[in-house]
Amino acid sequence: MPRGPIWPPSGPRFPLLSVPDAARAFQVSLPTMRRWVKAGRVPTVKIGATVRVDMSRLHGVGHVEVARLAAAARGTAVPIPVSDNSGPD
User: To bridge 32 with a disulfide, which of 25, 28, 52, 88 should be the other Cys (CB 3.0-4.6 Å)?
Assistant: First the structure.
């Protein structure tokens, strides 16, 4: 029988990463990830004295949100496409 740690479980059903592993996944420095954790910018779970980044609670940003954020950074407005779902004309 293989021996090894049983906690934390790994795999797609339990995607918790250590802070250094999360920094590598986000391609940011370890100090940046630590600031994000402290500021609550990434979802975390505390297991005893250990902090893990809960990757299952993260979601991607769609193209509309990217356009909105870019426009906000430029200080301009971007029209957001809306479908009227009225069917063919």
Answer: 28
> pLDDT per residue over 34-50, tens digit each?
999 999 999 999 999 99
**Is residue 27 situated within a structural domain?**
yes
The predicted model scores a pTM of 0.54
- CB atoms under 10 Å from CB of 85, counted, come to 5
Residue 46 lies in a domain: yes
Tell whether 88 is covered by a domain: no
Tokens of 48: 């005893």
Alpha-carbon span 75 to 70, nearest angstrom: 9
The amino acid sitting at 28 is V
The tens digit of pLDDT for each residue in 58-73 reads 777 677 777 777 788 8
